[in-house]
Give the backbone structure.
Amino acid sequence: MHEKKRTSSYRSNKTMVQIIVALAMVVCLYQGRAYAVLDPPTGAIERSCGETNIGGKKILLAYATKHGATSSIAAKIADVLCQEGFHVDLKLAYKVKDISAYDAVIVGSPIYIGGWLRGARRFLHKNQDILADMNVAVFITCTYLKDENDVPERRAHAKELYIDPIFDELPDIKPMSYGIFSGEFLYRELYPVEFILMKLAKFPEGDFRNEEKIIAWALEISALLQ
Ligand SMILES: Cc1cc2nc3c(=O)[nH]c(=O)nc-3n(C[C@H](O)[C@H](O)[C@H](O)COP(=O)(O)O)c2cc1C
């Protein structure tokens, strides 16, 4: 009898502990996302180029960033497109008011805890009707494809994980190309909650950006828009 009671109380304690651990994980993940959303971005770049490209198509490059890696990649794409004869406005996505004056839109976001930053996601949702009738290209920056991990199977998986869910919700937007770039991840730049989360996940740090791949994608977009 006593033995039975002890076993059932052990079971209920175990369940309780499991529930508490699960709740703690949910709170941590939520906070991680909240941090990624609430903290102001560092290293944002906003500028225009290609003003002297008379008759060149106008491209809006709207992006989000948290720690600046996506800004540097967006700026490189803009530079290449301006050299190719386009006029490019590089802007933080959450600040963009009107996209009607553009011939094409490129949207970029880093991946944080499996998802896009809110600025870029909101931009897509807010402008989905106009984007449905425009030339659209998208890119993400992440660490999933860093260095030797950049193989076709992982690329396909990264698209499934980080791009498809966004466009499953926005079926009318049909991007003509997807860029998936390795970004930069440095512990010294992280906010405290990010730091703890990433240390727990043993995320390897480094600058994994690859200029050749960024330029190649920008040239692909240029060819598609000519
Ligand atoms: C808190 C945090 C969560 C991250 N989550 C992911 C992830 O789920 N998948 C991934 O591939 N990279 C992840 N990364 C790496 C970032 O996507 C990468 O460092 C990106 O280049 C950062 O861009 P930013 O500097 O423009 O903010 C994460 C980085 C941080 C700091």
User: Anything to note?
Assistant: The chain has a mean pLDDT of 89. The domain at 41-186+206-225 is CATH 3.40.50.360 (Rossmann fold).
